[in-house]
Design a protein that fits this description.
3 helices
Length: about 100
């Protein structure tokens, strides 16, 4: 998954740099149609948003896993230390190992 994220955000950044180059080239040759064509193709915010949302998602996932592990540990600690087992109407005490 991380390689796909890197590929997507890297492609958006590279295409944004290409678009900036084309805008500069369009200004240099005085071609405003070329400038207009590439002026809306700057995808830097998309690359930043992809990385931000994925990082936030991983943080929230890690935090929830930690809380789940704590809850399971507390639940295991609620188990009694000894138990009474009845076999053939005889009571035996068994200690948890």
């Amino acid at each position: 998954m991380d390689s796909l994220i890197a590929l997507g955000s890297g492609a958006a950044t590279l295409y944004g740099l290409f678009a900036i180059g084309m805008i500069i080239y369009g200004f240099n040759i005085n071609d405003l149609k070329l400038v207009d064509k590439y002026s809306m193709d700057l995808y830097f915010e998309s690359a930043g948003m992809i990385l931000t949302l994925i990082t936030l998602g991983k943080y929230l996932e890690t935090k929830s896993k930690g809380k789940t592990s704590d809850a399971i540990s507390k639940l295991i600690n609620l188990a009694p230390k000894t138990a009474i087992i009845e076999k053939d109407r005889k009571r035996n005490r068994d200690r948890n190992r």
